[in-house]
Amino acid sequence: MTVPLAELTGDYVLDPTHTRIGFVARHAMVTKVRGAFHEFEGTAHLDGTDPARSTGQVVIKTQSIDTGVEQRDQHLRTNDFLDAPNFPDITFRTTGVEQKSDTDYRVTGDLTIKDTTKPVSIDFEYTGNAVDPFGNLRVGLEGSVTVSRKEFGITWNAALEGGGVLVGDKIVLEFDVSAIKQG
Fold it and tell me: Which residues lie in coiled coils (predicted)?
């Protein structure tokens, strides 16, 4: 049974076992590397009557980066990329929510990676809601945004013999969210 949007108003937490925060990066100019962060937490206040009054924040543990290749993951945790020992968190905090259609929303906020904060706008699709077998009301959202890693001070690269570079500048951040209403 789907709950009307107005009845979704309330406080939510991300369900880490049913939420994916991932990324896609161009590698060697010819393919893409996909990965995810496995440790994160997030909260949101959804206002189903006035979505512009909704808020949220996500904290991602940089140490939890996983591309399926341990040697690459270890390199991504170094100062060449995320510098996980000195910057253990990537954060996103909303500054605005705009309803674009019945199911499409633009969430604007401050994304902080390492010691750099930049405003970003993430387009989300509201994928629905349901009451799970345990009585929890869940909402689903899917979204993505492309960011420049150089804008966040992540500039390491290696030149390729035939031209180009090993790691592309544009990184796609992907969000497949299941959030559980609290209280």
Answer: none
